[in-house]
Amino acid sequence: MTNNPIQLSTVRGKLVLAATIFASGMAFLDGSIVTVALPRLQNVFHLTLAGIQWVTNGYTLALSALILTAGALGDRYGHRRVFSIGIALFTIGSTICGLAPTGSFLIGARIFQGIGGALMVPGSLTLLRTNFAANEQGKAIGYWAGFSGGLAALGPYLGGLIVTHLDWRWIFLINLPLGIAAYLLTERVVPADEPNKDHVIDWAGTLTIIIALSGLCIGLIQGEATKWGSLSIAAAVIGVVSLIAFVIAEAKAKHPMVPLSMFRIAAVSGANIATFCIYGALAVTSFFLALNFQQLQGYPADQAGLASLPPILIITFLSGPFGGLSNRFGLKAPLALGTAIVGTGMALLALSPTHASYWTNFFPGLALFGLGMSLVISPITQAALTVPPRSTGAASGMNNAVARFAGLAVIAALGAIAGTRFSSELANRPAAISSSERSAIVTEADSFGGATVPASVAASSQSAAKTLIQESFHASLQQAVGSASALVFLSTIIILFTIPGLSKKPTPTS
Residue 505 has what DSSP assignment? Predict the structure, then answer.
């Protein structure tokens, strides 16, 4: 902490808080706003399923691979400096995304944006903890969480409005004023902290985790697109080998970014496995639901954004009040109940028909989804942090990284499964069309929800061909979201066996 703690009631205190809110809010807003725009981006750049996955996962890959190192870089070079660099890179990346002339260029810019996000996202909380007086930190973090969460909640609707009424480029360019404000405030009002030149950065761990995540992501996403060719398999194998090398490097490192000893605590291991299942399922459901609303149900982008709001609003308003339940009932009860509710909500979404009523078929599942996550968010974090005090930072960074990587890995894996199912359905689902017409339709498989009826299909077969594409798309969506539901129910089982109940709360071990 700084030698002269800042009071939140002062002008400087408010401006320091504003800098962290603008930065983190920009990242949270970007995460929710881009998902709504995926169908438009697919249409504009003629992207395949792998292409729209990369728009999401290119950013998440860079963020996941570097977020564990960000804290160490802050310790080594100064947290304010690293935070400012992250803001600058994220803002520049957002601008490049908004000016992207091609889909490949956009994906590259998203990766660049993710590098900035990795340096920026963890820094906001660090600056609040190191600059505010101890009795002010809780209030400052509360304001930070509320305003940042509010910006995230605005994302789907704001993104829908932009895509419907403005150019899609503004979903990225909207970050420009927020980024400039955050950077200027950080440089002018946030106290500079002293770099610790003696702090050792785990470069072996950093390099192996970057290669591991990149290999796994490339292998899973490109596998279906290339029909599991040798390059995709090689990338996946390199990813697996590098992941093993990462574990070995962390076990041997004197100053590991991830102290493996903390996973000897059952609650920590269980919480991180459950986090992977829950947040991976959350990312998959959000990704495919955005495609369902616009490409299958035919909602305009602004209505699709509104349709996505219920769970975000429920989480925003109920996470705080529900967070205290673990003090009364322990961690296991709200976690098990919450994940069961989330899994049920996702199952209802998976069971929705091809042409569904929002209030009958989508809203109940979305409401349960939000209600369950409100019960889960606080206790899953508490369980992941039941480590000795000296390991709290590493445990927090690890849990954050697991949540980010979960979205990356599960979207890639279930995206590949959904793409395979779509191709199979197009080739085999009964339809009143000729074999040559079916062959023409199968060539549209890579476009996934953006598939259209080829011009070569006879006018008399157009309706049957359109129905075939829609029903095949729906079947693949059901499989993806249904698998996400199963993943959440798996987390319930893990929680029941690893998280202590009320009579035996998890305690850190030395």
Answer: -
Cβ contact 95:173 at 8 Å? yes
Beta-bridge partners for 505: none
Rounded CA gap, 498 and 318, in Å?
A: 26
Find out whether 328 and 375 touch, Cβ atoms under 8 Å. Answer: no
Pair 449, 421: CB distance under 8 Å: no
In CATH terms, the fold of domain 261-510 is Growth Hormone; Chain: A; (1.20.1250)
The number of C-alpha atoms within 13 Å of 143 and in the hemisphere containing its C-beta is: 18
Helix (H/G/I), strand (E/B), else coil: 265: coil
Predicted confidence (pLDDT) per residue in 18-63, tens digit = 999 899 888 888 877 898 899 999 999 999 998 999 999 899 888 8
Task: Provide Rg for the chain, Cα atoms.
Answer: 23
C-alpha separations of 477 from 64, 208, 287 in Å:
26, 34, 10
132 has which bridge partners?
A: 6
221: enclosing H helix or E strand: helix 203-225
67's CB contacts (< 8 A; 6+ apart) are 118, 121, 122, 397, 400, 401, 404
Sign of the C-alpha dihedral computed for residues 125, 131, 137 and 143 taken in this order: negative
- Position 388, amino acid: P
CB 79 within 8 A of CB 193: yes
pTM equals 0.86
**Separation CA 175–CA 158 (nearest Å):** 13
Q: Which two tokens stand for residue 494?
A: 């893990």
Q: What phi-psi label fits residue 78: left (phi over 0), alpha (psi between -120 and 50 degrees) or beta? A: left
The secondary structure of 64-76 as a DSSP string is HHHHHHHHHHHHH
Q: What is the pLDDT, as a whole number, of residue 395? A: 81
Q: Are 296 and 354 in contact (CB under 8 A)?
A: yes
- One DSSP character per residue, 429-456 reads S--SS-HHHHHHHHTTGGGGGG----TT
- Rounded CA gap, 250 and 259, in Å? 7
Alpha-carbon distance of 271 to 461, in angstroms, equals: 52
Identity (one letter) of the amino acid at 307?
A
For residues 432 and 339, what is the distance between their CA atoms, to the nearest angstrom?
43
From CA 170, how far away is CA 40, in angstroms rounded?
13
Q: What is the pLDDT of residue 224?
A: 67
Q: Which residues contact 216 (CB under 8 A, 6 or more apart)?
A: 235, 236, 239, 240, 243, 409, 412
Please state at what angle helix 363-384 crosses helix 309-323, rounded to 10 degrees: 40
3-class DSSP state of 111: helix
What does the DSSP 8-state code read for residue 330?
A: T
- What single string gives the DSSP state of each residue in 453-473? --TTS-GGGHHHHHHHHHHHH
User: What is the chain's mean pLDDT, rounded?
Assistant: 88
Instruction: Evaluate whether the domain defined by 1-200 bears CATH number 3.30.465.10.
Output: no
Confidence of residue 510 (pLDDT cuts 50, 70, 90): very low
